[in-house]
From TrEMBL:
Locations listed in the record: Membrane
Cited PANTHER family: AMINO ACID TRANSPORTER (PTHR22950), AMINO ACID TRANSPORTER TRANSMEMBRANE DOMAIN-CONTAINING PROTEIN-RELATED (PTHR22950:SF340)
Keyword presence, Transcription: no
GO molecular function: L-amino acid transmembrane transporter activity
Domain Amino acid transporter transmembrane, chain residue ranges per copy: 31-345
Pfam families: Aa_trans
Signal peptide coordinates: none
Keyword Transmembrane helix: yes
InterPro entries the record matches: AA_transpt_TM
Protein name per Swiss-Prot or TrEMBL: Uncharacterized protein, isoform C
Sequence intervals crossing the membrane: 37-59, 79-97, 109-129, 141-161, 173-200, 220-247, 268-287, 299-316, 328-350
């Protein structure tokens, strides 16, 4: 994307614009597909963020349901999704990113307070590591990769944050904001993955917060902290969708009067649709797997590889065509991973939807 900016002599481009420029810079036979490829990238970004926000709603509803079940009547978790959507409505109507920053700061504080407190349950009663199955058949790895990829698929958020930074030059680089953030996320997930499985074994749930007791004050506090943190991060991830959808409107002042009203309508529809999917298929693991496989394969592998391949078409691919080989390998990995991961997740979601419809 930085190379696209350099070639077009513009300060910044979005990922859909970068894909379009790359197609225009590539072989002649792909030039005509530039606009279509850019539009498809926009659709992928929107759908990826849609799945992400749906996962957040399911996560929040499941955790608050456990607390509600302990203190009151046992309501279906779909009612909790509905309440979460209603509470999110005023927050999701915030249109300026700078007003979402304090919200996201509170979200991070709540999340890491919950992470710190949950250590008590993780390190209490650790069994002998030899009692755990340390390896599974390779056929099960694809599900793991898809779920693990979920934590690395926030490409839309990454791009929006960079676009609104006061000093975007500090975003990239070896010790830039992006690398440090991803490294921290990787280490956090490795830690919770290893310790969580060591502690709970095969009985571990899709979210480790669902494994801790329901009837203890500390465990309830942890659930409230982490679920509230995820709840407050929904508006920022939804903001990405609005930014992508209305990026073309920013370039035309003629649409300025209608844009605000249209944006509010899109926000309402987006919130309603994520809530509807969360109510229809509240399977946290399958939704997480689908979002991880879909977004990682498209936004982290296919798009960057295609952009790089076409941008290097005129400049050359280096000795022994190593850049071209690298890009082709990334494309193949992305295709295989995306098709297999999405197929497994969709089958599970269809099964859950059939159960939901059958219970009505």
């Amino acid at each position: 994307m930085t190379e696209c900016c350099r070639r077009r002599r513009v300060p910044q481009v979005s990922m859909p614009e970068a894909v379009r420029i790359a197609y225009e810079e590539g072989p002649k036979w792909v030039n005509c597909f530039g606009r279509a490829a850019g539009f498809m990238t926009t659709c992928v970004l929107v759908f990826g963020q849609f799945l992400l926000c749906t996962v957040y709603l399911v996560f929040v509803s499941k955790n608050f349901k456990e607390i509600g079940d302990h203190y009151g009547e046992r309501y279906n978790e779909r009612y909790y999704v509905l309440v979460a959507c209603l509470l999110l409505l005023p927050l999701f109507m915030i249109r300026r990113l700078k007003y979402l920053v304090p919200l996201n700061l509170v979200s991070n504080l709540l999340l890491y307070a919950g992470f710190a407190l949950i250590m008590y349950y993780l390190f209490t009663g650790l069994p002998n590591i030899k009692d755990r199955e340390l390896a599974t058949p390779p056929v099960e790895w694809i599900e793991f990769f898809a779920i693990a990829a979920f934590s690395l698929t926030a490409v839309g958020s990454m791009l929006v944050v960079e676009a609104h930074m006061a000093y975007p030059q500090s975003y990239l680089g070896l010790f830039g904001v992006l690398n440090l953030a991803v490294l921290f996320i990787l280490l956090s997930n490795m830690f919770f993955g290893i310790i969580g499985y060591w502690r709970f074994g095969e009985s571990v749930h899709a979210s480790i917060t669902l494994n801790i007791p329901q009837d203890e004050i500390l465990s309830q506090l942890i659930k409230v902290f982490i679920a509230s943190g995820i709840f407050l991060s929904y508006p920022l991830n939804g903001f990405v969708v609005i930014t992508v959808i209305f990026s073309d409107y920013e370039k035309s002042e003629a649409n300025g009067r209608n844009r605000t009203l249209m944006e509010y309508v899109v926000r309402l529809v987006f919130l309603f649709l994520t809530g509807a999917v969360a109510i229809g298929v509240p399977n946290l693991a399958a939704l997480t797997e689908l979002e991880g496989a879909f977004s990682l394969s498209n936004l982290n592998l296919l798009c960057p590889a295609l952009i790089d391949m076409f941008l290097n078409y005129s400049a050359g691919y280096g000795r022994l065509m190593w850049k071209l080989i690298r890009d082709i390998v990334l494309i193949l990995i992305g295709l295989i991973f995306g098709i297999v991961g999405c197929t497994v997740a969709v089958k599970q979601l269809i099964h859950d939807l059939q159960l939901t419809l059958g219970s009505m």
